[in-house]
Specification:
CATH topology: Ferritin
Oligomer: single chain
Strand content: under 5%
Order of helices and strands: HHHHH
Largest sheet: none
Number of domains: 1
CATH architecture: Up-down Bundle
CATH superfamily: Ferritin, core subunit, four-helix bundle
Shape: globular
CATH class: Mainly Alpha
Radius of gyration: 16 Å
Helix content: over 70%
Number of strands: 0
């Protein structure tokens, strides 16, 4: 893999994270309560943090040992709803976040398989693992919320 190819992939990943930043920023304009606004701002900050992680990979590279195993509660896989039609209730914000992270996880996982055992596959597995962590974050919040009787 050339440095140019490596950087193109990271540019693609950064662009996806910037889309997520814009997604949460746009939702902030629709927030009806201060609590919703704060949560959406926190999610935007989380996505900005993802960009910093990717830039760290650009600077330092990635090794197979940098890829942690991440638990999958599989909550988002069982939710079948058109997320674009959801209002901004707390539950729906969590569902939208889960589904967004699930889609990114699937994309990076599919790309890692496409490249076999190459450096590109390792890079995509790392990106998929990071997205899995973010999905788990939303799933745990959702599970806690449902467990509280909502």
């Amino acid at each position: 893999m050339t440095i140019s190819e490596f950087n193109e992939i990271l540019d693609f990943a950064v662009a996806r994270e910037r889309e997520a930043v814009a997604f949460y920023r746009d939702l902030q304009k629709e927030a009806k309560f201060q609590g919703q606004l704060k949560m959406l701002q926190d999610l935007e900050a989380m996505e900005l943090g993802h960009i910093a992680v990717i830039e760290g990979i650009r600077r330092d590279g990635v090794l197979e040992t940098d890829i942690p195993k991440v638990q999958n509660l599989k909550i988002s896989e069982y939710i079948t709803v058109d997320v674009d039609s959801l209002d901004l209730s707390y539950q729906n914000i969590l569902i939208r976040g889960m589904k967004r992270e699930e889609a990114s996880f699937k994309l990076y996982t599919e790309l890692s398989v496409k490249f076999g055992d190459s450096e590109l596959a390792t890079l995509f597995r790392k990106l998929a693992s990071d997205e899995a962590k973010h999905k788990l974050f939303f799933e745990k919040l959702y599970d806690e919320w449902i467990g509280a009787g909502n």
